[in-house]
């Protein structure tokens, strides 16, 4: 009979995330991972596979704990408030990132995805989900009048996605509050409700 694992899988995945997140994929060896996870290299191979397999598990774990959690918390809010809260948290996290690790997903898009078709699909799929969150918020906001309809919802969602990626990359070298907030303010201006709808709402 196979011996039961003598470690907390969730905990060691958290440790693997931290290792990859701080050092990147290429600079992390399987020995580095084993040391960080508190396991032998044989245990890492037996439980997760090679470094690439560990990275895939760690990236999935990171996405579940970051994006999926964030969307779950914000999507119940009103459309415009959900978008504002999403970016406020992203900027706050970027400014408090003393090690300037950035976003592990964005780091993967830059380091791993260009050279690995599987990771390219994994990253692209998550970015599509992020865009979908923005799109749902914008569509609901355009329906209730809290977001303007001067621009198609799809274009606005993609603009927000591009701004998100820009903030996460820029913050790694220039984590400046005024800079990051200034980057998103013109984008938020595109979401402002139509003046006629505001007037109608005020009269009703």
Give a verbal description of the structure.
The protein has 204 residues and is mostly helical. It folds into 2 domains: 1-58, Orthogonal Bundle (Arc Repressor Mutant, subunit A); 75-193, Tetracycline Repressor, domain 2. The chain is 73% helix and 0% strand. It is built from 10 helices and no strands. The protein has helices at residues 9-23, 30-37, 41-48, 51-74, 79-95, 104-111, 117-144, 153-170, 177-189, 195-203. Helix 1 packs across helix 4 and helix 5 (79-95) crosses helix 7.
Topology:
Layout: H1 9-23, H2 30-37, H3 41-48, H4 51-74, H5 79-95, H6 104-111, H7 117-144, H8 153-170, H9 177-189, H10 195-203
Based on the model shown, name its key terms.
mainly alpha; Arc Repressor Mutant, subunit A; Tetracycline Repressor, domain 2; 2 domains; about 0% strand; elongated
In summary, what is this structure?
With 204 residues, the protein is mainly α. The protein contains ten helices and no strands. It has helices spanning 9-23, 30-37, 41-48, 51-74, 79-95, 104-111, 117-144, 153-170, 177-189, 195-203.
Strand content: under 5%
CATH homology superfamily of the largest domain = Tetracycline Repressor, domain 2
The amount of helix comes to over 70%
CATH class of the largest domain: Mainly Alpha
The H-and-E topology, N to C, reads as: HHHHHHHHHH
Gap between N and C termini: 73 Å
Poorly predicted runs are none
CATH level 3 topology of the largest domain: Tetracycline Repressor, domain 2
Structural class: mainly alpha
- From the alpha carbons, calculate the radius of gyration and give it in angstroms: 20 Å
Main pleated-sheet profile:
none
């Amino acid at each position: 009979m196979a011996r039961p694992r003598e470690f907390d899988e969730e905990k060691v995945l958290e440790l693997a995330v931290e290792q990859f997140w701080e050092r990147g994929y290429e600079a992390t060896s399987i020995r580095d991972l084993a040391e960080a996870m508190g396991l032998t290299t044989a245990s890492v191979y037996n439980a997760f596979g090679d470094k690439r397999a560990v990275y895939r598990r760690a990236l999935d774990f990171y996405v579940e704990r970051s994006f999926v959690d964030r969307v779950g918390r914000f999507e119940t809010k009103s459309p415009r408030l959900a978008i504002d809260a999403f970016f406020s948290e992203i900027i706050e996290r970027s400014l408090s990132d003393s090690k300037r690790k950035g976003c592990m997903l964005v780091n993967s898009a830059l380091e791993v995805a260009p050279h690995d078709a599987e990771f390219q699909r994994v990253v692209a799929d998550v970015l599509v989900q992020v865009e979908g969150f923005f799109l749902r918020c914008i569509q609901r906001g355009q329906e209730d009048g809290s977001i303007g309809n001067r621009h198609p919802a799809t274009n606005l969602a993609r603009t927000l996605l591009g701004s998100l990626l820009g903030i996460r990359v820029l913050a790694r070298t220039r984590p400046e509050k005024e800079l990051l907030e200034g980057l998103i303010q013109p984008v938020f201006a595109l979401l402002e409700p139509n003046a006629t709808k505001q007037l109608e709402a005020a009269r009703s």
